[in-house]
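hey so u asked for the seq, here:
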Amino acid sequence: MPPPSRYRRFAYPRRCPISGSATDKDEQSCSSGSQQEECVPLGSPAEPTVEECWAQRKSQLTRLESRLGDKRRALQALQATPNSDPKMVRVLEKEIQDMRAKCDLLTNQLKRAHDWIQGLGKWTVTISGSQVDA
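ran it, structure tokens below
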């Protein structure tokens, strides 16, 4: 049964959970009976898809983990020398801590993006009413 004219159906946007930008290149589908309402495109072709966002973050995480490994090896080498500069050791430890936090953030973003990708096409939204307060 088609929805009454006060209902509108929307295609769920393929919004990137990482960057927050809409990524669906299709337009919203509208059904409003005899009233025709304008449908607005959800995104522009220049915006990345969710899958592209995920791939970018995955490669960024890989590069960051590689740099983190290099920093750890440098710290171990510096600590192994008898005349190591304590200030330099502290600086490297701080950089490693910051990089580890960034890795954790990227890992969480990748998990959210993966969950989002798994749910694409499974969600439906029906708006049964609206109210505008002036």
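The radius of gyration is 24 Å. Residues 86-119 form the longest helix (34 residues).
lmk if thats what u needed
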